[in-house]
From TrEMBL:
Domain Xylulose 5-phosphate/Fructose 6-phosphate phosphoketolase N-terminal, chain residue ranges per copy: 13-63
Lineage: Bacteria, Bacillati, Actinomycetota, Actinomycetes, Kitasatosporales
Species in which this protein is naturally found: Streptomyces capitiformicae
Protein name: Xylulose 5-phosphate/Fructose 6-phosphate phosphoketolase N-terminal domain-containing protein
GO BP annotations listed: carbohydrate metabolic process
A GO molecular-function descriptor: aldehyde-lyase activity
Compositionally biased tracts (Low complexity): 62-78
Region (Disordered) residue spans: 54-78
Amino acid sequence: MTKVEHQNVTVLSDHGLRTLDAHWRAANYLAAGQIYLMANPLLTEPLLPEHTKPRLLGHWGTGAPLPGSPSSTPTSTG
């Protein structure tokens, strides 16, 4: 990452942005799978109604934070 001193902003490289995006998508997939899927989490076969839970149970706190939420806002380390 490159630090731009006069703007006090950290800029991600293209590789860093792609890596962050991949992790974000994986975290969202895992969170959705925990809530909606009962079987076939790796989608090794076409998704069928019997793979989904009849009653949705789960906790969104296990997933990636929503954009703009306090837990997704970067903090300054000084």
